[in-house]
Each structure stands twice: as structure tokens, then as C-alpha cells.
Amino acid sequence: MSAKILALDTATENCSVALLVDDKVYVRSEVAPRDHTKKILPMVDEVLKEAGITLAELDALAFGRGPGSFTGVRISIGIAQGLAFGADLPLIGVSTLEAMAQGCYRKHGATHVATAIDARMSEVYWGRYVRQNDGSWLAQDAECVIAPSLLVSDMVADSDTWYTAGTGWDAYEQLNTLPLTCKASDVLFPDAEDMVHIAKFELEKGNTVSAEEASPVYLRDTVTWKKLPGRE
Question: Which residues form the Gcp-like domain (predicted)?
Fold first, then answer.
């Protein structure tokens, strides 16, 4: 199936855009943790101009739905909804964790990937994925936010070799004590270049939503913090 899909992501420190036109992908990506709002729309304009098409010619628009930073996920879905409303496009939310699994396959040919994003507060956003024969990914664990110590105690060993992806592995050494055979990758962040391929599978299955129905995935519903003295 030929498709024209624009994907964007700002859920982590990485800001990225990718445009799939049939079998060609146009990409922009930059680690810019405080400049997402400045960079994302110019990136969109650049890939559209490079491909010589307009938003109205797209079949769908994909976005990184999380998990990730609260602000980053909100930016991602807000920009996606605005573009989708303006061009009357369906939306496809893509897991940032699954996108990193796809990134490991793109870079290393990995078919078993364990992903962990540093969620702060001594926790990680966690997910494991196995690539299927048709190129899609099957989640082995439900995506969750969890303390590394609990993950280690609950994990069941298996005989597969798992590529690791995400910032959580460097942030929490305890993850290296998981009863898994692991191999490190250089994939630290999700990238729209990988989201656009996942989105193509979802589009073929008809898994799209309207701009009004698009929703983020935070995993952590509440955030606690220590208030300054006298401001309790």
C-alpha cells in the first residue's frame, strides 16, 4: 500500500519530523530539549517542501503519543491536532517506546527490544517488543511506569537476547541486573523516522482517529513534588 504520512514527535529531548511518500522518507531530527516549539513547525515545512507536497495531499498524520515528558507530549499532540484540523486529516498516535524498538531494528536489525525512558522520580517508562514476520511489533509487557527495583524483582528470565533502548539504562544501573541477556544500542530517544513506519501499519488496518479523539499516553497520572517551606 502506497501512503503519504507525516509524523512528528516532541515527547522527549529529541525533536523530529518524518514524511513518508510511498517508499521514500524525508526526515529532520535534532536533540533540542528546550526548543521544541520553535523547531517543530519549521521542520514540518522543510520536509513538505523537500517532497513537493502539501498537507492536504497526505493520507494521515502521526504523532508521538507518549510516554515521555508531560510538556513534550502535550506539544506533540497539540501541534498534530492543529495541523490535522486545518487539513482535515486523520491522526495516528504512536507509542514512543515502540518507536525506539523500530529504531533498534533500523539501526541494528534487532527483533527483541527492551525500552526504558527515564521518567524521573526514580522510575522508568518501560516496554518490551518483539518484531513479527509482517514487520509489526508485539508488546511483551504492558507499557508502564515502574521503579527499576520492582521491575527486577518481577521479571522472568528467558533465552532471548534483548537490545536495550532509551535513557533509562544509563540513568538506573539497577536495570542492568535484570535477568535478561541484554545488548546495548545507541538508540536513546524515539524518532519520527521510525514512527512513520509504524503509522503505515496502523493506517493499513484503519486504526486512525479524528483530531478531536486524539489523546496522549502519560502512564503516570499524577506528579508529586516537594513544596517550598511555607507554601504547603
Answer: 30-134
